[in-house]
């Protein structure tokens, strides 16, 4: 059995060859185009991707020196000069400037305090206080975490999107096709297609095109067609109305660019290492055959622990009874009636699942 969450590996000659085969770049030429893009990654540099990531050829994610490359889904003819979380999805023909970030952990503002003392007993000051209280008073305090609802954390960026420098995106937002986000904006809600937004919080400034043009752009989804066929037909990208009129008279081929899929980079589960899932505050440990409850660790987030490194998982299904089923390969691990162990069952949910090859 294998589980794919955030596969990690080192950049080597085989990976470099595969990148070169599909024409995926880790550095940019700049506007002049005179200098061929050098390899932005060094041999041995860490790479992190996501199990369902799809990286189309003729695209670029700029690598930073001596830093882990976050390899998220990206479409053809898109350029991303920022390090976005691996579960991010970027469409085709996008331009993402440097220093674009996705906001991090949401603190529980609904609770009496949002401080991590209320939800993380392993925080240095919390652990020190609980330990000192026990030593000096002879009493083991009963500590219980407050809920930490996070919601969806995947950012989805449509096609033909331009995100300028120093933009902050809230987890879970969707940026519609054709949208533009001005520099230094803070985006806390979904961005409608073909709007130009800016500010803190970001608000709609204006639309890129008249509504009838926007409707036609969204209706034809020109980015789905082979770029070469559009050029061969002589379509004028500087004239949106003329472009759409000419496209309506054509039947261009649907694009099929070479692709790397994240599912080929999966994590095996060595039974001797153990893997921990936190489900509604109950931690379950993989022992090689099934999951059993582990009372030694308390963390209310849905999580994967491997080699003492905690990573958040995102593919799970909340059942009607409040339990959570975890996707593993083409099966789901679902809680048994005793609430302490999990069993494999056929995949029966419509949610996106982890795929094991």
Largest sheet: 8 strands, mixed
Count of distinct strands: 31
Instruction: Tell me the fraction of residues in β-strands, as a range.
Output: 25-35%
Instruction: Kindly report how far apart the N and C termini lie.
Output: 10 Å
- The whole-number mean of residue pLDDT values reads 76
* Name of the CATH class of the largest domain: Mainly Beta
Low-confidence stretches: 1-5, 263-286, 290-333, 338-342, 346-357
The main sheet orders its strands as 3-6-9-11-14-17-19-20
Broad shape: globular
> What is the structural class?
alpha/beta
User: CATH homologous superfamily of the largest domain, by name?
Assistant: Hexapeptide repeat proteins
Number of domain modules: 3
Q: Helix share of residues?
A: 10-25%
What would you note in describing this structure?
This protein is of the alpha/beta class and 357 residues long. The chain folds into three domains: 2-103 and 154-215 and 254-263, UDP N-Acetylglucosamine Acyltransferase, domain 1, CATH 2.160.10.10; 107-149, no CATH class; 269-346, no CATH class. The protein contains five helices and 31 strands. The chain has helices spanning 13-22, 124-137, 211-220, 227-232, 240-248, and strands at 2-3, 8-10, 24-25, 46-49, 54-56, 59-61, 69-71, 73-74, 79-80, 89-90, 95-96, 101-102, 156-157, 162-163, 168-169, 174-175, 180-181, 186-187, 195-198, 203-207, 259-261, 267-268, 275-279, 282-286, 291-293, 303-306, 309-312, 316-318, 324-328, 331-335, 342-346. The strands form eight sheets. Strands 3-6-9-11-14-17-19-20 form an eight-stranded mixed beta sheet. A five-stranded antiparallel beta sheet has the order 25-24-23-26-27, with no helix packed on it. Helix 3 (211-220) crosses helix 5 (240-248).
């Amino acid at each position: 059995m294998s589980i794919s969450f955030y596969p990690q590996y080192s950049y080597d000659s085989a990976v470099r060859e595969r990148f070169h085969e599909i024409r995926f770049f880790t550095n940019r030429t700049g506007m002049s185009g005179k200098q061929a893009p050098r390899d932005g990654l060094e041999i041995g540099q860490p790479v992190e991707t996501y199990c369902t990531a799809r990286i189309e050829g003729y695209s670029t994610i700029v690598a930073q020196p001596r830093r882990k490359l976050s390899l998220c889904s990206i479409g053809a003819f898109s350029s991303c000069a920022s390090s976005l979380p691996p579960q991010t999805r970027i469409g085709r023909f996008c331009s993402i400037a440097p220093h674009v970030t996705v906001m991090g952990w949401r603190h529980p503002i609904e609770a009496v305090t949002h401080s991590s003392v209320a939800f993380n007993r392993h925080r240095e000051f919390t652990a020190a206080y609980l330990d000192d209280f026990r030593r000096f008073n002879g009493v083991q305090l009963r500590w219980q975490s407050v809920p930490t609802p996070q919601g969806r954390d995947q950012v989805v960026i449509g096609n033909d999107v331009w995100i300028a420098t120093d933009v902050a995106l809230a987890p879970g937002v969707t940026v519609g096709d054709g949208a533009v986000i001005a520099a230094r904006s803070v985006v806390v809600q979904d961005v409608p297609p073909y709007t130009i937004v800016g500010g803190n919080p970001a608000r709609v400034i204006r639309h890129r095109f008249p509504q009838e043009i926007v409707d036609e752009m969204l209706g034809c989804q020109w980015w789905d067609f082979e770029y070469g066929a559009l050029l061969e037909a002589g379509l004028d990208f500087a004239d949106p109305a003329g472009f759409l009129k000419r496209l309506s008279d054509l039947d261009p081929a649907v694009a099929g660019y070479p692709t790397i899929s994240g599912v080929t980079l999966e994590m095996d589960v060595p039974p001797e290492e153990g893997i921990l899932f936190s489900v509604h505050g109950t931690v379950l440990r993989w022992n090689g055959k099934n999951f059993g409850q582990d009372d030694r660790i308390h963390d209310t987030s849905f999580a994967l622990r491997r080699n003492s490194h905690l990573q958040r998982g995102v593919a799970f299904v909340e059942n009607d009874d409040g339990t959570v089923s975890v996707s593993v390969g083409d099966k789901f691990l679902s809680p048994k009636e005793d609430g302490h162990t999990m069993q494999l069952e056929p995949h029966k949910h419509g949610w996106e699942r982890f795929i094991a090859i």
